[in-house]
Each structure stands twice: as C-alpha cells, then as structure tokens.
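QUALITY CONTROL LOG
STEP: pairwise intake check
CHECKER ROLE: data steward
CRITERIA: each record must contain a sequence immediately followed by its structure tokens, with no blank fields

ENTRY 1 OF 2
RESULT FIELD BELOW
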Amino acid sequence: MGIRAFVSAVLVAFIVGDIYRENRMGKPWASVVSKVQAPVQNFLRPAVWVPGLRNLHSHRETWTLPSDSHQNNLESVLGALMTVIKEDKSGSFWDVQKNDLQVARGFIRVFVYTRAEWLDIIELTFKGTEVQVWSFSSGFLPLFIPFACVLNVPLFWIPFLDNGLNKHRINKIVKAMDVSVDRH
C-alpha cells in the first residue's frame, strides 16, 4: 500500500466517520478535513482579495454600544453570540475562536461552517464603545474538499454570492443583544 493510497484511505475514513456522526447525533458539525484547513483559509482569505468582488459575499458595519465598559460590551456581544449559536437552525457549525489574550485586546473571531462546509468568518473588533464587525465568505470551494484552502488561491477572481447570509448573521447577533445597538 503506497503513501497516496494510505492518505486517501485516512481521508475517506474521516469523512465517512463524520457523516456517520452527524446522522447519529443530528447536531451541526464540521469535518476534520474542514477544521484542519480552516486556519490556513483564514490566513489566506482569497475571496476578499479583490475589492469589488468581496462586496458580493461580505458585510461590514460599525456598532456603537451604550456602555463605556469594555468588559460589559464584550459580555453583551458574547452573550448574544452564544444565543444565536444555540438557536441557529441552519445546520451551520459555529466555532468561536477566542483566546484570552485576543478577547482582552477586544477581538473575537468566529468560524462558521455552512452545511456544505464553506467557511464564513465573523470578526468583531472592540474599540471603546464601538465594535467593528466584518462577516465574509473566505473562499470559492468548500473546505471538505482536500486542499481546498490551497485550491481557493488561484480561484480568488471567481465572483460568487452569499445570498445575504453574512448580513443575516450579523442581524441575528444584533437582534439577540440585551442592549440597544446604534448601527452605521
């Protein structure tokens, strides 16, 4: 058995195992192949390289929150985010990428794997009472495809729509907030 056959067998086993797990548990999930490729896809972000094209599948806005306390603002947004994740019925898997240092500096990143395992990313940057929010699709190919994070690089120029999904996610987070949000 050659190395290529071995690697193929391992990848198939991961994918089949994930499909079995999803059917048994009925909860949103992301395959191992997708989770391994996500950090690379996040670093490269080929779908947002071209300014005109990125507008087709991204949404940016700034929120002004009422509290002057950085901690209160973080807690309000994180609480809303957890509510949205818990109530999400789209079959998307939400993976909040927050480490203590980033949160202390006022930055939260969320990987959202759609049912088809496209990776959408939500970034929230806190500056005083303002929160800069950016939600975007990261690449043309879904990450369940082996090496999609690399294959997406030469495909950066292909236009595609997110059908307003990134804006919709941001709207859901704002709606779940326990404080009033001034959006601009």
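ENTRY 2 OF 2
RESULT FIELD BELOW
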Amino acid sequence: MPRTREMWIAKGTVENMASLMTAAGSAPILETIHFVNTFGINLQIIPLKLIECPLLKWIHIRCFLSPFDWVGIRPFAPNLVTLELEIAIRCFSIEAPEMLRALNGMHKLETLNLSLIVPKLPADFNADVIATLPTLRYVEVLADFHTCLILLPRLVFDRTCARVKVTASEIGSALDDDAMQSTLRRLVALGASNDLTFDGTTADVVHAKFSQLSASFSIATYDKVSTECSLELSRRTKAVPCFELVYSTVSARAGQVVTHFAEAFLMSSVTSIYIGPCAFFPNTLQELFFHVNSVKTLEVVDVSREDSRAAFATLEPRDQQLPAPQLQNIVIKGFRGGDGCPSLEALRECAIHRRELECRIANVVCGRNCDLVANEAESVRELGIQVDWLPYLD
C-alpha cells in the first residue's frame, strides 16, 4: 500500500485482516486507519503491528467485544494525533489501567474520543494510573456516569485550553435524588476545571466556575424517541461551548433530572435553550422555563407541529408569573429531510399572551423545511415581530 493515506476495514475477522496486513507489508504514507465491526464478530485483537506505517496519526476502532488489545496500540502511541475508540470493557479493574497506560504514551494526541460500554463496574477502583496528555485539545467521553467519574480525574490535560464533552448515562443504574446534584457538579468540575479534587458538594464553587465558562448542558433520553434539551451558558455571543455535559436517562425521569439541573447549576446564567425532538412536554419545560431568567434565545428543532404547540404553551404566563422573562429571539427549524415543522400559529398565540406582562418577542427566524408554515408568517409579522426566512439555515 505505498500510495494509501487512509484505510477502512469493516466487518473483518482477525484472520483476514492479518492476511491483508501481512501482504501489504508497509504503508509509508498511511495516516488514517478505521476498523469498524458489528456486534458478534470477534475483533479483540487489532493486528496493527503486522504493518509498518510510520506516519499513522489517526486510529478509529469500533468493536464491542472484550478484552481489547491495548498492547497493539502502543507502538503507534508516540505519533498519534487522533484516537477514536468505541469498545467494551468487561473487566474494568484490569482493562482500565491498561487503557490509561496506553494513553499515557500519546504525547502528541490532540483529539480523544472514548465511547465505552462497561457492563459491570468493580465496587472499588484503587489503581493510581493516570494518563498525561499535554497536547490534548478536544476530548469526548461517553459512558455510564460511574465510569465517567472514575476516568475523568485520571485524564490529565489542560482543561483551560481544551474542549470537553461528557455524556454520562444512567443505563444500568439510576442516581438517587441525594446523589444527583453532587454528581452533576462533580462531572462539571472534572470536565471544565483543572482542580480535580473538587467533590461537587459546594454550589458556590460551581457557580463561580460558571461565571467564566462557555458551556452547554443537555438532557437526552435513550428510550422511546430520541430526545434532547440543551441549555447554553455563554458569556460570548455565538461562542462554541468549551464544555458540554449530556446527561442521558429514560424519558420518565427527564423532568426529575431537569429539576436537579436547576438546583445544581446557576440557571440564571443560561442565555439560550435548544430543544430537540422532546418526549417530555410539557411539564418538564414549564419547570425549566421558570428557572431561566436570562434566556434571550430559544431554538426549537425537529419538533412536530403538535409538540411545538405544547412547547410554546409552556412559555405563556401562569398566575401572573412569566417564564423566561427576557426571551426575545426564537429560531425554528423543520425536520431534517422530513415534512414536519413547528407551528408559527402557536407561537403567535404565545406572543400575544406574553405581551400582557410587557414581554415582547422581537425576532423569529425560520430555518430549514419551514415552507409548510409560510402562510402563518404574516400573522406573526402583524404583531410587530420581525420574521426572517432562512431556508438554508441548518
């Protein structure tokens, strides 16, 4: 493979990949290699060592059988710039230290993406192994919250110079109410601060960190339909969040998690809210909107006409109290590749009711696939609201 720069191997077995690499011999300009396997195919050992590729900088591996061959990765560690792994770890107390030792040799690594399935965690994890990654600029960890809490303090890098995304799932074990707030705060501290000793128990410390943080907090559900509700905390207009926390739970618990988010974090700092295809309308959103007094922008994306009515209804006054009192801008986008779109008619009704408490929505932006509600735009304009039609806004 003297002229190959990027190689994909999908649904391969150890035997046929070993034959391929032995035949290839060397790949002097190979920079990127992908191993992508489906469930049920045994790919525990990646035969990378059978091929000479001195310029290899990017490895992407997806195989969910265990144990994973960390020894096979180590020869390439010094030159790696990007590592993406979607793997299973069945014996955490043995495999996690091996993973950290392998990562510790990756002194040029700039991007790390770990998606881990850990069926069973040990009762205790006392290994003192850490991975020091001095050049890391982006890290994404997706695992259950126990694994996130164990691994994040063992990944040592400058969090002030890196973007960090943590997706913590309740799959297999849900947090009780007493542990929820401290766990959420601890995840934020581990992802956004170089102070890895903070235990998450002091709300004031978290709030102080937030005052200097560009961050996104999301609640996602992994049952029924896909759901996402994100809160953007940013002091810089249109800033890319430097820290993202996604908490994944079942839809029945979404409202409860929202309440804990509001109690754990400084919701008064939230400047914008993104709502994806939600399964937990309307009570959850109503609870949320009463906590976010500084929100100026609401984005409603991939939400059906019916669900958008419920969403906009939660923004209407209740007992002379106004949810999200600073709200001025609303962005709506229809389903990607579909024919559904949020309702401008429902938004108009919401705007009328909010005016009763002297809160005026100033701008509405209609993005992709909003043609279905084009005939409703004029009635919104009649309220003095500026409506911009941007069909290519994605």
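INTAKE CHECK: passed for both entries
DESCRIPTIVE NOTE, ENTRY 2: The CA atoms of residues 26 and 51 lie 5 Å apart.
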